[in-house]
């Protein structure tokens, strides 16, 4: 009996040891496979169309609220420790950032090149057609508008959500929201409600370039040579304003290439769009841009204006004022996503097949239809790897 019991105990010990060894080897093998799969996933570039927020819901903050509160407390502590101080870092002190002056000129040139290319591609016999819904902001690139029932405009219920298509233009392909021009972005950063008719409005991307160092005729701006002071949180400028606003600054001269083919124009437009967006991102890291949390209004400057013109959700509680927050690049340059069409001469996109269709920014879809190659970052968004079934087979697909 004792011998039998000892043999059983030894057998149980050996089995436990084998089991622990197998578990450890399996854990190591599984973790290594997970790391390899993660590495493979990191190499794959996948992106999808950002989902729009619920109607009446505020836009998400680009910077977390805890970080904004921490920055505000830090600024308050600095003001209390040193009530009267000279601001050292540009552009908060009123001076320009030297490294971004050339970037501002490149962004403006890229915008002008983009508009010039689009104007040549939209007009003409071999032009790419652009359709715009008469009752909502929906845009479509193609000879005939799609049949997807997504219209939310006036009397859309009586039309069962079907769009009413008309002819579109450059503004429908690329969206540039406008803002008020600031002559002095440091000492007078806000536009009052009574001053709204006496101040010019221009595209926000152009205003950003002007504040970053671009000189344009008709839009004078104050260029300082000495930094400003902060006295108990208020900006004070001891430099006299001797600049004559009636004299226009020297105009920036840009040249465009002529005699380009349709494919070359589409390539130039797409490159200009990417260059404009990348340059604008660099400028927005230094020069603040704010947007309304409920509508598309944008203002370039440290603070938003006080014009009571907001008509979005909850505007009654704000007396028509905008709910300003930090802006993103999509607020400054609207991508305006449209459905991707694989064949311009094919049939219209069907509502029943919309889950098989991809989307892309209107400018990307327009340039691709004109002959430009599909950018890598938008290939998955356009669902080029998805094979769409026929219209009579869509209900047979799981």
Automatic annotation (TrEMBL):
Single Gene Ontology MF annotation: RNA binding
UniProt cross-references to Pfam families, sorted A to Z: APO_RNA-bind (PF05634)
Domain APO residue range list: 132-218, 291-376
InterPro entries referenced in this protein's UniProt entry, alphabetically: APO_dom
Region of interest: Disordered: 37-62
Name the UniProt record assigns to this protein: APO protein 3, mitochondrial
Organism: Dioscorea cayennensis subsp. rotundata
Gene this protein is translated from: LOC120260688
């Amino acid at each position: 009996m004792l011998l039998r019991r000892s043999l059983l105990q030894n057998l149980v010990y050996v089995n436990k040891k084998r089991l622990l060894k197998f578990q450890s080897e399996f854990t190591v093998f599984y973790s290594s496979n997970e790391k390899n799969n993660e590495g493979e996933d990191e190499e794959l570039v996948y992106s999808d169309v950002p989902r729009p927020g619920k109607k009446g819901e505020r836009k998400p903050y680009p910077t977390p609220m805890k970080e904004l509160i921490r920055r505000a407390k830090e600024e308050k502590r600095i003001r209390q420790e040193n009530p009267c101080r000279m601001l050292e870092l540009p552009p908060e002190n009123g001076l320009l950032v030297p490294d971004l002056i050339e970037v501002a000129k490149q962004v403006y040139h890229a915008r002008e090149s983009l508009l010039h290319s689009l104007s040549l591609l939209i007009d003409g016999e071999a032009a790419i057609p652009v359709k715009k819904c008469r009752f909502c902001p929906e845009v479509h690139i193609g000879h005939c508008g799609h049949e997807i029932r997504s219209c939310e405009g006036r009397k859309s219920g009586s039309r069962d959500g079907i769009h009413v298509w008309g002819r579109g233009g450059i503004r429908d392909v690329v969206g540039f929201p406008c803002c008020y021009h600031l002559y002095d972005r440091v000492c007078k950063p806000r536009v009052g409600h009574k001053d709204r008719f006496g101040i010019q409005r221009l595209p926000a991307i152009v205003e950003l370039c002007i504040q970053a160092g671009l000189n344009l005729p008709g839009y004078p701006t104050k260029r300082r040579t000495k930094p400003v002071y902060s006295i108990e949180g208020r900006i004070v400028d001891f430099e006299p304003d001797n600049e004559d606003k009636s004299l226009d600054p020297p105009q920036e001269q840009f040249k465009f290439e002529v005699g380009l083919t349709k494919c070359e124009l589409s390539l130039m437009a797409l490159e200009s769009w990417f260059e404009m967006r990348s340059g604008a991102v660099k400028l927005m890291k230094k020069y603040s841009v704010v947007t309304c949390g409920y509508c598309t209004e944008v203002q370039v400057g440290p603070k938003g204006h006080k014009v009571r013109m907001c008509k979005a959700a909850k505007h009654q509680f704000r007396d028509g004022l905008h709910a300003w927050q930090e802006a993103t690049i999509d607020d400054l340059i609207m991508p305006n996503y449209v459905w991707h069409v694989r064949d311009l001469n094919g049939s219209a996109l069907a509502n029943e097949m919309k889950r098989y269709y991809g989307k892309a920014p209107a400018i990307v879809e327009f340039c691709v239809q004109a002959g430009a190659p599909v950018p890598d970052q938008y290939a998955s968004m356009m669902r080029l790897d998805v094979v769409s079934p026929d219209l009579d087979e869509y209900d047979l697909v799981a």
